[in-house]
Design a protein that fits this description.
2 helices, eight-stranded antiparallel barrel, two-stranded antiparallel sheet, Lipocalin, mainly beta, 182 residues
Length: 182
C-alpha cells in the first residue's frame, strides 16, 4: 500500500507530496505519475480512515426513542401508541389496570403530541370510556446505554363533580414509569 500523503520516487531519488491537487494538476485522478499513485490505490486508505472515524464517534451517538408500540406501566396498565405523524401527533389506546370506579374497565382512546428529537418530551390525554373522567399525562422518553426505552410520566386525573364546592378533591396527581412490552 502506498502512503497517500508522502511518496519517495526511487528513480529520481527525491521525495514528493501527493495531494488531490497534485494529482489533478498532473492529469486524470486515475492515472499514476512518478510521485503519485493512481486514485484507486488511495481509496482503501480513505475507507480505512472513514471506518476508524465512525468507530470513534459511535459511542457518542444518541439512540432514538420511538413512542410507537406497546407499553406497560408499574401498575400493570397497557398502552398502545400508533399513527405518530411527522409533526409529532399520535393516537392510541389505554387499558388501565386500576380504577376506583365500580364500572367494568374498558379500553379508552388517547391522543397526544411529542417533540421530534432523540429523547422526546410528550403529552397525551386519555378520555376514559367507562367513567366520566379524563387523565392528562406528560413525560419524556429515555433510552439507556443498552438501548432500552423508558417513559417517565406525571399525570393529572380529573373527575366530574356535581358542584364547585367539591372541586377541591376532583383532581388526583401521580407518576408512572412505562417500559416497552416485549
Amino acid at each position: 500500500m502506498v502512503e497517500a500523503s508522502r511518496l519517495h520516487n526511487q528513480t529520481l531519488g527525491r521525495a514528493g507530496t501527493c495531494s488531490p491537487v497534485a494529482i489533478k494538476r498532473r492529469g486524470s485522478p486515475a492515472r499514476s505519475t512518478d510521485t503519485c499513485p493512481p486514485a484507486a490505490e488511495m481509496v482503501p486508505t480513505t475507507s480505512l480512515l472513514l471506518l476508524l472515524g465512525l468507530a470513534l464517534l459511535a459511542p457518542g451517538l444518541s439512540l432514538h426513542c420511538n413512542l410507537t408500540g406497546n407499553w406497560t406501566n408499574d401498575l400493570g396498565s397497557n398502552m398502545t401508541i400508533v399513527n405518530v405523524s411527522n409533526n409529532g401527533e399520535f393516537k392510541g389506546t389505554y387499558h388501565t389496570a386500576v380504577t376506583t370506579s365500580k364500572n367494568e374497565i374498558k379500553e379508552s382512546p388517547l391522543v397526544g403530541t411529542r417533540h421530534n428529537n432523540s429523547q422526546p418530551t410528550f403529552g397525551f390525554t386519555v378520555n376514559w370510556s367507562f367513567r366520566d373522567t379524563t387523565t392528562v399525562f406528560t413525560g419524556q422518553c429515555f433510552v439507556d446505554k443498552e438501548g432500552n426505552e423508558t417513559l417517565k410520566t406525571m399525570w393529572l386525573l380529573r373527575s366530574n363533580v356535581s358542584s364547585i364546592d367539591d372541586n377541591w378533591n376532583a383532581t388526583m396527581v401521580g407518576t408512572n414509569t412505562f417500559t416497552r412490552l416485549r
